Amino acid sequence: MVELCGDFNQEVADQIRLAIKNKAEVKFVSYDLEELKKLEKLDSDENYAFIIMDEGLELGKHLNKVNFIELSSAFDQQKALSVIKSIDAEVPVGYAR
C-alpha cells in the first residue's frame, strides 16, 4: 500500500496507481470539512505529526507544538474522531482514505 500525505489528491493517487500498474492500493490523507477549515487557517505547515499506528497512543503527551496531524489508513473516521477529541480539537486532523 502507498499512502500519500495531504499535499496530494485523488488525481495524483490515480496517476501513481496507473504508473505502478495497480500493483498496490494508493491512498492519500484528506480532511473532513471542519478539519479543513482549521487547516486553511494555519500560518505554517512546518511542524506536523504523521501517525501510522494507534495502539497504546497517548497523544496529549507527544503532540504539543504540532500544527496539524495526518493519520495513516490504520485510522478510520471513528478513530480519527477519537484523536480529534483526545487533543480537544486544537489542531486539524486528516486521515488516509
Describe this structure in words.
The longest helix has 10 residues, at 10-19. It is built from four helices and five strands, in the order E-H-E-H-E-H-E-H-E. With 97 residues, the chain is α/β, with parallel strands linked by helices. The protein has a five-stranded mixed β-sheet with strand order 1-2-5-4-3. It has one domain (29-96). The protein is globular and about 40 Å long.
Question: Gist?
Answer:
This protein has 97 residues and is an alpha/beta fold. It has helices spanning 10-19, 33-40, 59-62, 77-86, and strands at residues 2-4, 26-30, 48-51, 68-71, 93-96.
List the topology elements.
Layout: E1 2-4, H1 10-19, E2 26-30, H2 33-40, E3 48-51, H3 59-62, E4 68-71, H4 77-86, E5 93-96
Parallel strand pairs: 1-2, 3-4, 4-5
Antiparallel strand pairs: 2-5
